[in-house]
């Protein structure tokens, strides 16, 4: 209680001043009664009338403070609940031994974004950081070139949430060289300086993706959806980058004009 009072001292003072002013006028008016029933004359109020007005004002002040405290307490409880839920979801998402937990974690994060509107950006940023770390790990291991579908689902959730709530999905310096990411959805994402060297991106959705300084050498981008030559001009592309013939011709033309 003491901590709460310290944190909300200014608000309580303002409320107290407002109620004090109201109470003052109510008490001042209480000194007189308008006897409209009999002769319309103003008569002095009794002491009991003044006391009733004063006590009512104090009671009102107490009710307002109690209500404000309950609202604040509910907010704190809700924030604590959110912290517990997102910590658990992220921990499950990073559980490499249980695919079911990882799938459930992504589903839980989606629900949290719906239930806590003011925490959506935090959810997106935390999930993006963990997704990027999983890509780095998969890229280092090289054992199984295609990451688990839970990671694809997580990326798709990030894109969906970002589009729905008008945030920008950011994967700056994403490292996934040598991975098999066919069909992955990166629509609208920030992939500046990402490393896609040797990455298989056949059929990936790259519509309106920012590929500035992204390494696409030896990457297979055939069949990529929404990919344009203008996007490729900002990336690192060479003869080892596999593109659809028409896209390669358009890219070479624009490159020659630079």
Return the CATH class of the largest domain.
Mainly Beta
Shape descriptor: elongated
Helix segment tally:
8
Distance between the termini: 67 Å
Name the quaternary structure.
single chain
The appropriate CATH architecture of the largest domain is 3 Solenoid
Describe it.
Residues 33-40 have low confidence and may be disordered. The longest helix is centred in the N-terminal third of the chain and has 47 residues, at 47-93. A two-stranded antiparallel ribbon has the order 1-2. The chain is built from 8 helices and 2 strands; from the N terminus they run ααββαααααα. The chain is mainly alpha-helical. Helix 3 (47-93) packs antiparallel against helix 4, helix 4 (99-115) runs antiparallel to helix 5 (120-141) and helix 4 (99-115) packs parallel to helix 6. Helices cover 57% and strands 3% of the residues. It folds into 2 domains: 1-93; 101-258, Pectate Lyase C-like.
